[in-house]
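Quick one, tokens below:
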């Protein structure tokens, strides 16, 4: 096995290991970036919904106080305002969802599903936590969800959700007295839940990974080619010429040319040493022949 073959085997092995390590690391980074992108989108939706809730309480509800005495207006309810606004966004991004899920909601449409109920129960068991992020299987693939607890921290909420007998008649006329009552101060009664699909960012990450892998493979192949050319012109070809001259000298060819040396690298240094050895060997052979001729003359 020649030196070029041995060198290529070692180089290809190192290149394969390097390509594998680079591919694994880049894939992890791209997937992490995709998750961070989805988490950012979920955070923006959550902050938007929270801002709408605050605007409704501070700006809209005071303007409709008189009308609320004649008819209950859901537009004064923060959850209704946030959900309605996000629903408008979903006309363009149907897979993006926002829900204010509750275990005992006034509006049955807000009742928590099984996995949402698990989130609410988690917040009840971890009162110090203010946010939960996780993954779930949705109809269109994997989705990331962000959830924040809805806790009763304002006693004004109990005016509508305390005892049914104390609730406004307009509210009872619209929703009845069966749901959304009995809430307590400090109780986690639900959760804001934003769900954002991961399929699109993951597809982009996979597309980028494939292109990056192709580029890295091309770079490694180009590196192998360049190293082989350098190896041939800097090492293999000079060594082959030196071996050919050495072969001629070993056969007694006195007309063998000197090895041409250029530069100051190790091959050039070896060539100069080879030329000195060749000259020394020629001188030694001449001295030996002269000595043998003198011996014959004396005899």
């Amino acid at each position: 096995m020649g030196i070029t073959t041995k060198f290529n085997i070692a180089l290809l092995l190192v290149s394969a290991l390097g390509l594998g390590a680079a591919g694994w690391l880049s894939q992890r980074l791209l997937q992490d970036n995709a998750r961070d992108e989805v988490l950012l989108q979920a955070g923006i939706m959550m902050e938007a919904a929270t801002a709408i809730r605050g605007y409704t309480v501070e700006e809209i509800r005071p303007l409709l106080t008189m009308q609320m005495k004649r008819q209950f207006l859901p537009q004064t309810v923060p959850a209704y305002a946030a959900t309605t606004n996000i629903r408008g966004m979903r006309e363009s991004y149907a897979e993006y969802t926002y829900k204010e899920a509750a275990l005992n909601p006034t509006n049955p449409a807000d009742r928590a599903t099984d996995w949402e109920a698990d989130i609410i129960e988690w917040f009840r068991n971890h009162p110090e936590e203010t946010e939960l992020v996780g993954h779930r299987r949705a109809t269109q693939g994997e989705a990331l969800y962000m959830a924040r607890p809805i806790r009763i921290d304002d006693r004004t909420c109990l005016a509508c959700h305390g005892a049914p007998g104390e609730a406004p008649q307009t509210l009872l006329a619209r929703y009845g007295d069966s749901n959304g009552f009995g809430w307590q101060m400090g109780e986690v009664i639900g959760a804001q839940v934003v769900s954002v699909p991961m399929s699109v960012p993951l597809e982009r990450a996979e597309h980028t990974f494939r292109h990056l892998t192709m580029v890295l493979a091309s770079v490694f192949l180009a590196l192998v080619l360049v190293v082989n050319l350098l190896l041939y012109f800097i090492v293999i070809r000079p060594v082959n010429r030196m071996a050919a001259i050495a072969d001629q000298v070993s056969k007694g060819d006195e007309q063998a040319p000197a090895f041409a040396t250029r530069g100051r690298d190790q091959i050039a240094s070896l060539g100069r040493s080879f030329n000195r050895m060749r000259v020394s060997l020629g001188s030694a052979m001449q001295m030996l022949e002269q000595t043998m001729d003198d011996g014959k003359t004396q005899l």
